[in-house]
Amino acid sequence: MRRTVRAALEEAAVQIGRVDARVLACHLLGTGRAWLAANPMHVLTESQDARYDLLVAQRVMGHPVAYLVGTREFYGRDFEVGPAVLIPRPETETLVEAALARLGPAGEVLDLGTGSGALAVTLACERPGATVHAGDASGEALAIARANAARHGAGIAFAHGSWYEPFAGRRFDLVVANPPYVAAGDRHLAEGDLRFEPREALTDGSADGLDSLRAIVAGAPEHLKSGGWLLVEHGYDQAGACRALLGAAGLADLVSIPDLAGIPRVAGGRRE
Ligand SMILES: C[S@@+](CC[C@H](N)C(=O)[O-])C[C@H]1O[C@@H](n2cnc3c(N)ncnc32)[C@H](O)[C@@H]1O
Predict the structure, then answer these.
(1) Residues 38 and 127 in one domain
(2) Distance from the CA of 63 to the center of ligand 1, in angstroms?
(3) pLDDT (average), residues 251-256
(4) Is 78 within the bounds of a domain?
(5) Nearest residue CA, atom 11 of ligand 1?
(6) How remote is the C-alpha of 135 from its chain's centroid?
(7) How far apart are CA 111 and CA 37, in angstroms?
(8) For burial by CB atoms within 10 Å, which of 23, 193, 195, 251 has the most?
(9) How many domains are contained in the chain?
(10) Those residues with Cβ within 8 angstroms of residue 239's Cβ, 6 or more apart along the chain or in another chain
């Protein structure tokens, strides 16, 4: 027998909790929460019923909700996501705020390791006069970033390659990066959403998780204009190491910025 919305939600809530049950039902039916609440006796079609069970089963197996529904909100905008890209995190909004505080109306920005394009697209939308470049080593990620740029009407110059390699000889007012920084043996890689995200977006395989940050910080002086800023996101316990890297690269006015939980998650410095 086909279920009502209420019956399907109640069965799913036992397995995956009420919030995820509602999010998946909204996605399946193309509705919002208000419609679900107002139509509990709506009967699912046979196909909807079966597809809802499949979504719930995938969630039970641990598949991230963002991949199941295909989008994740970041800084007030919806971004297409899929298994080729990291799911944008709320803590990365700290990097957006730090970047906007230092980016003039017509600045030239580079986003290294753009993934879904969350940072590049957000900065382009928030600073329509800025020129935004973005790179990634993953061609699949760049395809999603391009789709997100088109979705939000952001003109971004994308390039495929490792860190600064596609931007040789170019200098920017601001370089931002949220690189892979999880240490190779970190147990979190085998837990939660991280099990389903691209490994190369999470870790570069180095024992301390810092190799990508080392490369990005070391390359910054020759890709920043005079007065330009480098801002990077890092792990909860990497603030000291990042400060040392920024200092060793000769950057000035070093900053360490906490996320909403009060944990330092963004480090930066300015080329004099
Ligand atoms: C942590 S994800 C960040 C994605 C996005 N910027 C965000 O904040 O949601 C890191 C990204 O760096 C990319 N990446 C890893 N190694 C790279 C390299 N050597 N050169 C360029 N991009 C790289 C990965 O493909 C991934 O998209």
Answers:
(1) no
(2) 21
(3) 98
(4) no
(5) 113
(6) 14
(7) 41
(8) 251
(9) 2
(10) 256, 264, 267
* One domain, residues 49 and 95: no
**CATH classification of the domain holding 163:** 3.40.50.150
DSSP string, 160-174: ESSTTGGGTT--EEE
How, if at all, do strands 224-233 and 264-270 pair?
antiparallel
**Residue 36 CB–ligand 1 contact under 6 Å:** no
Task: Tell me, yes or no, if the pTM score tops 0.90.
Answer: yes
Please, what is the Cα angle at 27 between 56 and 141, to 5 degrees? 90
The residue written with tokens 């905008």 in the block is 77
User: How far apart, in Å, are the Cα atoms of 188 and each of 83, 99, 193, 252?
Assistant: 18, 28, 9, 33
Q: Is 93 in the pocket of ligand 1 (CB under 6 A)?
A: no
| 58-83 pLDDT per residue, tens | 999 999 999 999 999 999 999 999 99
Q: How far apart are alpha carbons 61 and 77 in whole angstroms?
A: 28
Binding site membership of 45 for ligand 1 (Cβ less than 6 Å): no
Considering the domain architecture, whether residues 140 and 265 belong to the same structural domain is answered as yes
Q: Is 238 in the pocket of ligand 1 (CB under 6 A)?
A: no
Which residues touch 50 (CB under 8 Å, ≥6 apart)? Answer: none
Residue 141 CA: which ligand 1 atom is closest?
27
Q: Are 193 and 137 in contact (CB under 8 A)?
A: no
Mean of pLDDT over the chain:
97
